[in-house]
Amino acid sequence: GAVVSQHPSRVICKSGTSVKIECRSLDFQATTMFWYRQFPKQSLMLMATSNEGSKATYEQGVEKDKFLINHASLTLSTLTVTSAHPEDSSFYICSAEGLAAPYEQYFGPGTRLTVT
Amino acid sequence: AQSVTQPDIHITVSEGASLELRCNYSYGATPYLFWYVQSPGQGLQLLLKYFSGDTLVQGIKGFEAEFKRSQSSFNLRKPSVHWSDAAEYFCAVGAYAGKSTFGDGTTLTVKP
After folding, report:
1. How far is Cα A82 from Cα A113, in angstroms, rounded to an integer?
2. Is residue A1 over pLDDT 70?
3. Rounded to 10 degrees, what is the CA torsion of A106, B36, B100, A22?
4. What is the pLDDT of residues B8-21, one digit of tens each?
5. What is the DSSP letter of A28?
6. B98 lies within 8 A of chain A by CB
């Protein structure tokens, strides 16, 4: 149980285009989902926290207009990188916190974004 | 502010040898502490967590960790390492799981 999926696993897009990443909790309802960014050989940086049906809370320094987060249901959150640039290339990981275990988060497998 | 320090960037151990990965934290109250493992190109998997109670916690894959409040430490241990344990290990501290702060990670290499 407690499986989180992400789609796509890898995406390459051209500079100036937008790309959407989906995060789904497959076998539980996620009250809260989190989006992280991870640079090579570095730790995870929390970008934003999203609760179902409400606006996401962004961490300091994260551009909310560039990284659009939607949490439309208890099993799906999406991250859209708008007008992507090469510096947005990174590994994006989502996690979900369930109703049953509010102090545990389950991570998706990550999405490798490359902007050319 | 909360912070986590993993002093060892890279550790190499021989298969079958014991392992200890260090984690020191800074937090104003009693913390929630976590250890995660990340295989290359993958997300994170929770190994174990400490919220309260017994300071020695058991996790999956034969790992354990000990919370020492006096030393602000939460070191991860395994008595006998397997080649499949080679991965990146992250310690995290926070008020709850989602608002955790992660350490920079320790890369574990296992020699045959």
Report:
1. 12
2. no
3. -30
4. 999 999 999 999 99
5. S
6. yes
Q: Do B97 and A104 touch (CB under 8 A)?
A: yes
B108 CB-side CA count, 13 A = 28
Q: For the CA atoms of A86, A96, A76, A60, what is the dihedral angle to 10 degrees?
A: -40
* Confidence check: pLDDT of A102 > 70: no
Backbone φ and ψ of B29, nearest 5°? -135, -170
A27 touching chain B per CB within 8 A: no
Amino acid in position B63: F
Mean pLDDT of A99-107: 74
CA count, 13 A, side-chain hemisphere, A4: 31
Three-point CA angle A63, A67, A73, nearest 5°: 130
Q: How far is A68 from chain B (nearest CA, A)?
A: 19
Select from B43, B49, B102 the Cβ nearest to the Cβ of A104.
B49
B97: nearest CB among A4, A91, A97 = A97
Q: Hey, is the C-beta of B60 within 8 angstroms of any chain A C-beta?
A: no
